[in-house]
Amino acid sequence: MMKPPSPGSYLLLAPLALLLIVFVLPSLNSPRAGPDGLVALCGHRATTDVIVVAAAAAAPPPAEPEQQQQPPEKLSLMVGVLTMPRLRERRDIVRSAYALQAPIPGARVDVRFVFCNVTDPVDAALLALEIQHHGDVLVLNCTENMNDGKTYAYLSSVSRLFASSPYDYVMKTDDDTYVRVPALVDELRGKPRDDVYLGYGYPMGGQPMPFMHGMGYVVSWDVATWVATAGEILERNDTLGPEDLMVGKWLNLGGKGRNRYDLKPRMYDLNWDMDNFRPDTVAVHTLKTNRRWAAALRYFNVTAGLAPSDLYHLPAMGV
Ligand SMILES: *[C@@H]1O[C@H](CO)[C@@H](O)[C@H](O)[C@H]1NC(C)=O
Ligand SMILES: *[C@@H]1O[C@H](CO)[C@@H](O)[C@H](O)[C@H]1NC(C)=O
Ligand SMILES: *[C@@H]1O[C@H](CO)[C@@H](O)[C@H](O)[C@H]1NC(C)=O
Ligand SMILES: *[C@@H]1O[C@H](CO)[C@@H](O)[C@H](O)[C@H]1NC(C)=O
């Protein structure tokens, strides 16, 4: 059964739904391979090649007159959820969990699922289905591997891919993290819009500034733009290795992200017994099983609004 997108949802991104499969090239040292059936070449840039695909999903809706009376947007955030084709069931949970969060007045928040190259034809067929249905997918030209440059491919491409409607902030998170977007946006509202690096901070030997754990971190748009142009990152091979540590290293060596905010303890790992949820959570990580997602959905009352009906009889949702 299909349910139409809820009209108010900031996650369903009508204006941005025209995406896409985008191939972004972190390093250009081998000859270009011909695009396969899913891919259409749109353009070259000086330092990177970009391929934009599958734009058929949705055209932006016509502008409505009322929009002119709405208050100006105060804050915009793109949330990139790094995931993999085979984690389709997980992605379905994560997507629904984001979609059921209340829209935030005065904020534009777009959630996108971020992939590297899709090589398997079955994966490609099913991902095309997801793209056409949800329009919230980014496919980058990288090899699927958490510590092999995917974060670099993501952070270094967003400033170009979304140059026409930039965000104030760009987040990288994972598909085993539940981000409570309103709580995160509240944190961001009072912060500077530039030179920001925010997340779950952890100290690295001798470094004066904390690094942000890979469960989820936010950089401001200028920082993402800097990553895209910082040739030094590639020269040092600093795209390879534990991604969160590498991002901290880039920023420290580049003198970037000096407005640094540690959201511990409001960002945390869920423990084994699943008894450390907190009401002021910004993000909870290690939701690696359906059981752990179920516990989170229950704790945060995500489905509490489900109306009673003769059409379904669900057991009490204890886990
Ligand atoms: C993708 O990256 C590979 C390896 O860096 C490169 O050989 C290829 O030309 C790139 N493809 C596109 C479409 O940009
Ligand atoms: C991604 O796939 C494209 C098309 O199949 C290929 O040209 C490219 O080299 C691949 N890139 C990487 C980094 O594997
Ligand atoms: C980066 O990696 C390449 C390929 O593995 C290697 O040839 C090069 O020397 C490395 N550069 C640095 C600065 O480590
Ligand atoms: C969930 O709902 C219950 C009952 O209304 C409430 O006591 C609790 O604070 C809510 N939990 C969160 C995290 O908002």
From TrEMBL:
Q: What pathway is this protein a component of?
A: Protein modification; protein glycosylation
Q: What EC number(s) is this enzyme filed under?
A: 2.4.1.-
Q: Give the range the annotation lists for the signal sequence.
A: 1-26
Where it sits in the cell: the answer is:
Golgi apparatus membrane
Where is it chiefly localized?
Golgi
**Gene Ontology molecular function, alphabetical:** hexosyltransferase activity
Write down the InterPro entries for this protein, in alphabetical order: Glyco_trans_31
Q: Which cofactor does it need?
A: Mn(2+)
Q: What class of enzyme is it?
A: transferase
* Record membrane topology: Single-pass type II membrane protein
Identify the GO cellular component terms for this protein: Golgi membrane
Instruction: Name the Pfam families on file.
Output: Galactosyl_T (PF01762)
The entry's keywords:
Glycosyltransferase, Golgi apparatus, Manganese, Membrane, Signal, Signal-anchor, Transferase, Transmembrane, Transmembrane helix
Q: Which family does it belong to?
A: Belongs to the glycosyltransferase 31 family.
Instruction: Report what the protein is called.
Output: Hexosyltransferase
What is the species listed in this Swiss-Prot or TrEMBL entry? Answer: Eleusine coracana subsp. coracana
